C-alpha cells in the first residue's frame, strides 16, 4: 500500500516531510487506503464490469469490452442492440446476446448461485425489463425465480405462485400501466420489494411516470422504487440484499 | 305543450306567422318538446335537487334549500360544513347532517331502494368520500352495500368480502395513495367499476393525482374514473347503472 | 367440481385430512368454486379473447390467434398493424381487418345484438378511437349507433342527432383537443356517459392529457373517463352497462 | 414638447450640440415624441389608473389612491379586501366597494358607455371573476351585458340567451372546472371570444390549469385566453376590441 | 327561409300542426332562423372553407378540396405537406403552395384588403407560424404588415419598427423559447395583442409550454393567447378584430 | 387451525360435504392456513402495530392505541401531534412522545438490537424525517447509527464519517432540496441505500418532487426510493434488510 | 497544520507509521491541507456566517446567532420573521432587522464596498427578493445599485436607467409573473446576468415556475438562473463575480 | 456618429427642427449613441458571430457563414450536422468541424487565451454538451481545462482533480441523470459555477428536467443554471466571468 510506503519512507528519513505532504494533498483517495473502495467499485457501480451499451460509440464499445474481458475473464453489457452485438462479437467470438433482455456478455462458467430472488411482472410486455433484472442478479451470483404475467387484473395467477414469491429473500416487481403489482406483493410478503416501473402503456401512462407514482405511493410496507425500466438497478440492489441474507 | 299551442293558434289564424317565428327563435328549447329535458334534469344534474354547498353564500344557501324543499318535499346537499348545517336548520328544523359524508338533507320517508351497488374503500381515510357516494346512491333510491378498508396491501380482507362485491350491479371503488384497489376489483368482478381517486396520501400522492393516474391506466377492464374526491359523481353514475339493471 | 370431489373423498375416507389441506393450500382459487371467475374472465379481461396486438412478437401473435380461434371459434384483436394482419391471415384465412379501428378478427356469424349504445365523436380525427369502441361493443353483442363529428364548435350538428343519443342505454363520447363533447352530452342525456379522451390535437393538447383533464372535471353528472385513446376500454364498459339494461 | 424645445434651442444656438447629445442619450423615451406612449399608458397598463390592491402595503395603497384621485378625478382598484376598502375610505369617503368583484373605486359620474360586450359564466361560482371583467369594461366606457350560469351541462340556458350574446362586439367567457363554455360560445358567435379560466373546481381542476388547457385547445375559432381568474385582463382586452368596433 | 314557409303553410292550412311540430323538433337549428349561423360558419370555423390538412386521408383531402373549390370558387388549407400539395394539384392545377407557412390554396383574384394587422416574430424560426397567421388574415381580406426577428434580446430591432406596429388595429406576436415578445409589445401599443407561443426552442422550452406560460402570465395588458403554433387561430381572431375596427 | 378442524369433521362424518364447501368458499383466506400471513402482517404492514396517527378521529385513535397495547404490550404511532399525545396519554400514562420524529409509543423494555443501519441526512431540517426512520428501525429491533447534516455542499463532513456508514448493513439517506446525498453515498458504500426525499426546500423543490426525481435518476447503483418524507417506510425496509443480514 | 505535525512526528520517530496511517484514514479532509477549504467555506456556504432562519427552532437560532457573533464580530440571517428578530435581540441588542428583505444582522461598521452590482426588479412586489440579494451583496462588501420596477410592460422605465445597469460588473434581475425582464436586460448589457424568478403572480404563474421557465429559456446570452425567490443565492453569486472583476 | 451630425446640421441651420425630430423619432436607437450596443452585440448575442445552425435552411446557412466570414475573418456555428458542414465547406474550404461538439468554424489563428475556466462533466455522455461550452469559451479567448467523467457516484475521481478545478475563475458543470455534480463542486470551490443540465438519462430523467430541478435547488452557494444541453450559453457566460477576472 502506497500510503504505507510513503510513511515508512518518512519514518526511515528517505522522504522529506514536505514531499510527503505534497503526496497526501495530491492523492487523498487512491493512496489513502481506499483500495477497498476501488475493489468494491468493480462490483458496485459497473464502470469496471457492467457496460451501459446504448449510445456508446462503436470503437469505444469494442475496446471497453476487450479491456474488461482481458482484465476479469468476463464482461457484462446492458441495453445492447443486435448491431452492437454483431460488432463486438467480431473481436470476442464467445460473446452471447439475449434479445429479450438486450444483455450481451461473456460469463465465467460454473458460477455458484446462492439464496433466492423472485422476479415478477404484471404483464408479458414487462418481461424485457424483468429479464434485465434477473440476468443481472444471476451474473452477480444469485439464484432467481421468474414469476411473469401475474398482474393484479387476474389475481389468482399471482396467488397461485405465492409460495415461490414468499420463499425469496427479496422480490423484484416490474409493472407498467397502473403499476399496482408492487403494492399487492408488498402486502403478501415480508421481504423487501424492489419496484421497477416500466414504460409499458399508452396515453396517461406518461411513459412510466404513472407506474412510478403508483409504486412510490404504495400503501404496503417494504417497497422501494428504482427508475423507469431500470431492470439493471433492481437486479443489482436485489443482489446486494440477497447476498446479505446468505452471508455467514 | 306550448309549441303545440302556438302552432294551433297559427293554424286557427289566432297568431300571425311573424309572431310565431319570434316565439320559435326566442325559445328554441323550452318550448320545443324539451319538457322531457327539463324533467330529467331534475334527476340528473342536481341543479334542481342536489346542492354543492361549499362556497355558497349564506343567504343563497338558505333560500335554495327552502325553495327545493317546498318544491320537492326533500332536499339534498353535499360538501356542507357544520356551520352551514346550523344555519339552514334554523329555517328547516327537519334537516339532518352527517359529519362523515358532509351531506345535509331532508329525505322523504319510506323510499324504496332497488338493486345493489357495492361501495368499497382502500383505507379508513377514504370513507368520507365513499359515504358521499353511498348516501347519494341511497337518496336516489338504490340499495348500497359498504365494504370499507379492503386495500390491496391486505388482500385477504378484500377477498373475504368478494361475494358481496360480485353480487352488485355496479361497484364504486374509492382509494387514495397508490389507488390500486380499482384494478384489483376490476379483475374480480364482471360489472362496471366506478373508480374514485381520493386526495388521501402525502408527498408524491400529489393530492390525488397519483391515484387518478393509477386508475386511468388500469390494466383491468370495465373501469372508468371520476374526479378526485368526487363521491357524489360516482354515486350518481352508479345509480344510473344500477337502475338500468333493475328496470323492466 | 374438484373441491367438491376432494371433500367427497375426505368424507368417504379416500383422502387423508393432510392431503386435503395441502390441496386447499395449493390451489385456493381455481379449485374453490371460482369456475365462475374463470368463466367471466373470458368475457371480461380479454386475456382469453381480446388480444392487444401492438408490440406482440410475430410468433406469439400467430399462436395466440390460432389457439383462441380453435378454442372459441372466434378471435378479436385490437391495435393491429396491417403487417400483423397479413402475417396472421396466412394461418387464419378468414381473418378480416379494419384499417380505421385497427381491429382484426374472426367473428361468429349471426350474432344477436341487443340494447343500444351511442358512440359519438367530436371530430373526424377521433373516429379511429370511436370505431375501436363501437366494434368492441358489437363483438360483445351490443347494438351500436354511430354519431360522428358532432363537436361542440358546431352545436347544431349534435343537437340534430339528440334523439338518437338520448335513446341509448349508454353513450361513449370520444374527443380530443379540448374534449368538451362529454360535458355537453352529459348535460343532455340521463344515461351513463363513458368519456374517451383522444390524443388528437397539438401543442397544449399534451397528447390527450388536456382532454382527459377536461373530462375528469366535467360539471355534468353521469360521466366517467377511461384512458387516452382507450376505445376498447370504453366499448367494453359500455357493453357491461348496456347488457345490464337489457337483461331480464 | 421637450425634444422639440431642445432642437429649437440648438437651432437658435442657445444649446450646444454636446448638451443636446447628452439630453437625447439620457432620455431617449420620454422626450422623444413618446408623449403618445405616456398618454396611452394611462389607459392601458393601469400603472397610472388601475391598482392591483392585493399585497400592497397599507400606506402605499392609501397614497396611490389619493394621488390617482387627485390627478384623474377617479380611481379604480382590483383585488381589494374589505379591510383595504375600510382603510382607504378614511381618506377618500366617496370610495365604493363591491364585495363580489372585489373592486373599489371612485368613478366620474355620467360616463357614456358605447358598444356592447357580453360577459358569460359557466356557473355561479365564476361570477366573481366575471364581475371583475364586467366592471373593468364599464369603467373604461363600454356597455356590458351579463349572461351568468349558462354552463354547458345545461345547454338550453345558454341557447335561450344566444341573441344577446350574438349581438355583442366581443364576448368574455369565464368558466372553471372543465372550462368548456368558451368552445361552445366560440361555435355560436362570429365575434372574438376572450376566455377566462377560473380556479373554481377541485381535484384534477388543478386550481384552474385544467380549464386553461381546455380553452387553449379549443376547436372553435376566434378564441384567445388570459390568465386564470384574470377578469381584469379580459375586461381590458374586451374594452380595446369593443372600442375598435365603435370608433368612426 | 324554411321556418317561415312552414309557418305560412300552417297558417294557410296546407300543413297540419302535427307535421309542423315534427319539422321543428327535427331541425331546431338549421331551419330556425340560423341561416346567419350557417353563413358566418363559413367564414368562421373553417369546416366549410379552411381545411386542416395534416393527418387527412388522401382521398378525403382531394374530395374536400374539390367540393370547396366548386362551391366557393376558392379553397384554403393549412398544415399541408408538399406531398399533399402534389396530390391535390393533380385535380386542381391552379392550386398554389407556400412551403414556409405550409398553406395550399386557390384564392379569388382581386380581393380587397382592409385595415391593418401587424404580425411580429421573436426570431426567424417563428416565421413559419407567423406566415400561417399572416396568410390566413390576408385570405380573409385583411391588410398585414410583417415585422419579423424583433425578439427581446435585441430590443432596438423592435423599437425601430414601433411606428408600424403601433398603427395596426391588432398585433399578432409569435415567439418561442422564453416568449417575452408579447409582453414587450403589449407595453408599447394600445391595441389587442394575440400572442402565439411557438414550439421553437429545446430543453426546458417543453415544446412551447414555457412560451405559453410566459404569455399567459404577461404583466402587460391587452394580451390573450392561442395554442402553441396556432398561427391560423391567431390570424383568424386578428381578422375578426381588424374587421370590427374597419366596419361602418 | 380451523381448516384442519373442518376437514377432520368431514372425515369423521360430523360435517357434510356441502357445509364444508360453503366454509371454504366463504373464508378462503383466514381459514386456509394463512395464519402465517396474519402473523407476518403484524410485523409487516403496521395495521396491527404501527398507527399512522395524522387525521385519525380522537376516539378512534384512543381505542386503537388501547387495543394494540393490550394485545401486544407495546404500541407505536407515527405522525402524531402533541395534542394527540396528550389525549392518548390520559388513557395510557406510560405513553412517550418525541416531538422531533412525531412518534408516540409504549415500547417493551430491554429490546435487543441487532446489526447496523446508518441513517444520514443532508441538512438539519431533514432530521425530523430521519428520526422517524431511525426510531422505527429501533422499535423493530435494529441498531441504528445517526450521521446527520452531511450534505454534499460540504463533502468533508460526509467523508469524515465514512467508516461508520460503510460498516452498516443498509443506509437510509434523507435529503431535501436537490437530494444529491443518496447518489454520493451510493458511490461510497456497497450496501443497499434507501433514499428518502424530504419536502425541505422552497420554490422549485416542489415540496420534495425535485429531490424524489434526483434520487430516482441516481447514477450510482444500489439505491431505491420511498415516498417524500416517508421516514417510516425507509426505516421499515431498512429493518427488513438489516435483519436479513443478521439472521442465521 | 496538523498533517504537517503528524509527518514531523513520524519523521522524528515520535509516532509510528501505523498511528499515522490511522490518522490519515480517519481525517482525510480537515487535516489534509484543506484548511483553505475551511477558510473559504466561511465566505461561501453560509454554514458559518449566513443563517437561513426560517424553520429554525428558537433555542437553536439564538445560540447560532450568539456563537457566530462571538466568533466573527458580525452575523447575518435571511428569511427571519419579526418574532425571530424580537427573540434574538433579547440576547444581541445590536441586532437590526429589515422587514422588506427579512434580513436580521449585526454588521461590522466601516465595511469598504467595491465594484458594482445592479439589482433590478420587474415590479414593486419583487422588491422583497431583490433586497435579499442586494443586502447580501452589500454584506459581502460589494457596491450595489438598485433599479426597481422596470418591468418589460413599460420599457421606457428600464431604458432610462440603462446607463446605470450597463456600468455594473454583474446584474441581478428579479421578476415574477412572466419573468421577461432577464431576457430584455440580457440583450442590453454585456455582463453576466443572474436571473431570480419570484413567486409573484397568480394562476398560471405556478408560484414562480413560469418565471423560472421563461428565464431558463432566455434567447439572450449571458443569463443563468437561481431558485425561485432565492435572493440570497443571487446576491452571493453576484458577489463572487463582482469581486473577480475588482481583484488585482 | 449620425446623431451628432444631425445636431451639427441643426446647429448650422442646415437641417430644420422638424426634420431632426423625424430623425430622432424614427431611429431612436441606432443613431443615438448605441454604436456601443451594436459593438458589444457582436460579442454577445451571437446574431453577428455565433450561428445556431440546427433548423436553418441550406441557402440561409451558407450565406450567413459567408457574410460573417467576410465581415469578421472568422465564423462560429453551433448545433451543426455533418451534412451542414459538407454544404458550407463547399463555399468556405477552410471550415472545420468537430463531431463531438457539433461546432463548425473558421477561427483566426494565434488567438491569445487568458484566465482559466474549468469545464467538468458527470459522465462520458455529457461530453458533447461540455465540448460545446469549452470550445465556445476558447473561441472567445479563454483558457479552458477539461475535467470529464467525474460524476458523484465515484467521488475520488472528482477529488483527485480538485486542485485544477479550484484554480479556475469559473466552473462549468454539465451533468444529466440526477445532476448532482454541480452541488458537489459548488461545495468545494469559491468561484461561480455555471450548471448545465443535460438530457442524458432515461425514464424519470424527463429529458433533462430532473437534472435541471436538481441544479436549481442546489444547497450549495454560487451556482446558477442555464437551459438543458445549453453548452453554448454556459461557455458564453463563463467567458464573461473569466474575462472580468482577468481584465485590468
From TrEMBL, chains A, B, C, D, E, F, G, H:
Q: Which organism is it from?
A: Anaerostipes caccae (strain DSM 14662 / CCUG 47493 / JCM 13470 / NCIMB 13811 / L1-92)
Where does the PurE domain start and stop, copy by copy?
A: 115-247
Q: What is this protein called?
A: PurE domain-containing protein
Annotated GO MF terms:
hydrolase activity
Q: Which InterPro entries does the record cross-reference, listed alphabetically?
A: P2CMN_synthase_LarB, PurE_dom
Q: Which Pfam families match?
A: AIRC
Among Gene3D superfamilies, the record links this protein to:
3.40.50.1970
Q: Which GO terms describe its biological process?
A: 'de novo' IMP biosynthetic process
The lineage is:
Bacteria, Bacillati, Bacillota, Clostridia, Lachnospirales
Q: Which domain of life is it from?
A: Bacteria
Amino acid at each position: 500500500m502506497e500510503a504505507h510506503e510513503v510513511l515508512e519512507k518518512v519514518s526511515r528519513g528517505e522522504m522529506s516531510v514536505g514531499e510527503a505532504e505534497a503526496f497526501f494533498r495530491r492523492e487523498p483517495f487512491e493512496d489513502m487506503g481506499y483500495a477497498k473502495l476501488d475493489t468494491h467499485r468493480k462490483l458496485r457501480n459497473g464502470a469496471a464490469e457492467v457496460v451501459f451499451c446504448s449510445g456508446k460509440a462503436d470503437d469505444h464499445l469494442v475496446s471497453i469490452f476487450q479491456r474488461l474481458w482481458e482484465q476479469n475473464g468476463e464482461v457484462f453489457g446492458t441495453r445492447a442492440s443486435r448491431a452492437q452485438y454483431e460488432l463486438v462479437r467480431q473481436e470476442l467470438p464467445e460473446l452471447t446476446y439475449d434479445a429479450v433482455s438486450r444483455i450481451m456478455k461473456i460469463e465465467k462458467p460454473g458460477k455458484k448461485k446462492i439464496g433466492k430472488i423472485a422476479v415478477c411482472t404484471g404483464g408479458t410486455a414487462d418481461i424485457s425489463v424483468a429479464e434485465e433484472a434477473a440476468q443481472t442478479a444471476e451474473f452477480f451470483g444469485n439464484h432467481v425465480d421468474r414469476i411473469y404475467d401475474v398482474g393484479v387484473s387476474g389475481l389468482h395467477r399471482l396467488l397461485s405462485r405465492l409460495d415461490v414469491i414468499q420463499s425469496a429473500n427479496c422480490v423484484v416487481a416490474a409493472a407498467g400501466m397502473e403499476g399496482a403489482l408492487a403494492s399487492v406483493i408488498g402486502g403478501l410478503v415480508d421481504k423487501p420489494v424492489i419496484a421497477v416501473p416500466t414504460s409499458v402503456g399508452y396515453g396517461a401512462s406518461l411513459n412510466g411516470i404513472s407506474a412510478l407514482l403508483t409504486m412510490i405511493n404504495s400503501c404496503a410496507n417494504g417497497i422501494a422504487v428504482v427508475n423507469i425500466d431500470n431492470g439493471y438497478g433492481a437486479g443489482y440492489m436485489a443482489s446486494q440484499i440477497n447476498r446479505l441474507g446468505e452471508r455467514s
